[in-house]
Specification:
Layout (H helix, E strand, L loop, with lengths): L3 H7 L7 H16 L16 H4 L1 H13 L3 E5 L8 E5 L6 E5 L5 E5 L14 E3 L3 E3 L6 E3 L4 E3 L18 E7 L2 E5 L7 H9 L11 E11 L2 H7 L6 H4 L4 H4 L6 E4 L5 E6 L21 H5 E7 L3 E5 L4 E10 L2 E10 L9 H16 L3 H8 L14 H14 L21
Antiparallel strand pairs: 1-10, 2-3, 2-5, 3-4, 4-9, 6-7, 7-8, 9-10, 11-17, 12-13, 13-14, 14-15, 15-16, 16-17
The protein binds FE2/S2 (inorganic) cluster and fe (ii) ion.
Length: 418
């Protein structure tokens, strides 16, 4: 069975064309009017507290999401020229991302094939054609090939062709670099497609990396992440910010395959223009969706991209430990040239204020999670993106590997748009 909602959106495969824009706007209008969840929507069982506190479950999550899944690993602007490189430890392994002499972006384990030292150190840089390991001097090309070893007379018969840096899957979506440590994973393009189709009309390649900072918080990464999957908290947590601008009662949710989702929040006042964005160039190709709404996409598992017509903030959320999380706060925008307009200082600061509000409850919630007072998480209809995310997590882990008491019951298939 497919609900009417899901069936209608099957027609959206083409992307955000005119009729789809109108259909999405109509759904927001209907959302404002509804008095209850739609007929047939299931009651969502509580999420088990152990999903936030069980160390064995946390290891399953890390393995499924970071080791075997595609994860965001940067922006092509971090690799401006052949030889540009940076290190990424987001997946838990030391990974070297590098632009080759042919312009291709590749990733390798930053692990010398001799005795495992890092071949690149210092975070980022530009290599003049090769990397030389700082331990004993083995040298690798930008394509990972082992070019030379020190004192070759002592390594007679060494099969250098077999001893290149071990490659890591590395593919791009627009200007975004993704890596995946699982050689058998599906191609990135296929993984992101259920969501990416709605961004196809936008010149993603033109989005420059305007800003990036990291912040660490005490709390399980899902406490941070789930906050960005609902608008239910706008009214209290963002009383003086987001709540003044967006009407959460009109927020319409889209659930897509592979755990991706989106919420579309209408501006409270029709025709409202963000004063903080005044004077900034708009992306070409935008529709009413980017202009008149906050279209907050979530690329499973941990990249939040709330699109506006003039720029896209990004929040990437990384589990460091079961109770420790790193957030990357990012901004991407269609800048006219390489120089960042001074207007951005205010815009970035405004957004930082909202992010600060967003993390206000993370540490206290974590304290609750560690206590016997945390008994489970009942989710409402408007919080269904969170349940959908957890369903996707269990599928990624493999349900049979999860203790029965911690599993979520899959209920939202019929509410997920194809
Ligand atoms: S560990 Fe790299 S050369 Fe020895
Ligand atoms: Fe928020």
């Amino acid at each position: 069975m497919q609900t009417k909602e899901a069936a209608a959106d099957t027609a959206d495969r083409a992307g955000l064309d005119g009729p789809t824009v109108e259909r999405w706007k109509a759904r927001v209008a209907a959302e404002r009017q509804r008095r209850s969840p739609p007929e047939g929507f299931p009651r969502l069982p509580e999420l088990a507290p152990g999903r936030y506190s069980d160390p064995a479950f946390f290891e399953l999550e890390r393995d499924a999401l970071l080791r075997r899944g595609w994860t965001w690993a940067g922006h092509v602007d971090q690799l401006p020229e052949p030889g540009s490189w940076y290190e990424s430890d987001r997946s838990g392994s030391p990974i070297l991302v590098v632009r080759g002499l042919d312009g291709t972006v590749r990733a390798f384990y930053n692990t010398c094939r001799h005795r495992g030292a890092p071949v690149a150190r210092g975070g980022s840089g530009t290599a003049a054609g090769s990397f030389t390991c700082g331990y004993h001097g083995w040298t690798y090309g930008l394509d990972g090939a082992l070019q030379a070893v020190t004192d070759p007379r002592d390594f007679s018969g060494l099969d250098t062709a077999r001893l290149g840096l071990v490659p890591v899957r590395c593919e791009t979506f627009g200007p975004f670099v993704f890596v995946c440590e699982d050689p058998a994973a599906e191609p990135l393009a296929r993984f992101v497609e259920p969501m990416a189709r709605y961004l196809r009309h936008l010149p993603l390649e033109s989005l420059r990396l305007v800003h990036r900072r990291t912040v660490e918080v005490t709390g399980n990464y899902k406490v941070v992440l789930e906050n960005f999957l609902e608008a239910y908290h706008f009214r209290l947590l963002h009383q003086k910010t987001t709540h003044r601008i967006f009407d959460h009662t009109g927020t319409n949710v889209h659930l897509w395959r592979n755990g991706h989702s989106m919420m579309l929040s209408p501006h409270r006042r029709a025709g409202w223009i963000d004063p903080g964005a005044a004077g900034m160039p708009e992306m070409s190709g935008i529709t009413d969706i980017e202009r008149d709404f906050n279209a907050s996409y979530s690329l499973f598992p941990n990249l939040i991209l709330p699109f506006s017509s003039t720029g896209v903030p990004g929040i990437a959320i990384w589990p460091l430990a079961i109770d420790r999380t790193r957030m990357e706060v990012l901004w991407f925008a269609p800048m006219r040239d390489g120089e960042r307009d001074p207007l951005w200082e205010t815009r970035i600061a405004n957004f930082d204020r909202i992010v600060e509000e967003d993390v206000e409850f993370v540490a206290p919630i974590q304290a609750s999670i560690a206590s016997p007072g945390f008994r489970g998480v009942p989710l409402s209809y408007q919080e269904r993106r969170i349940y959908h995310w957890h369903e996707a997590l269990d599928r990624r882990i493999g349900t049979e590997r999860i203790p029965a008491a911690l599993r979520v019951t899959p209920l939202l298939d019929d509410w997920t748009e194809d």
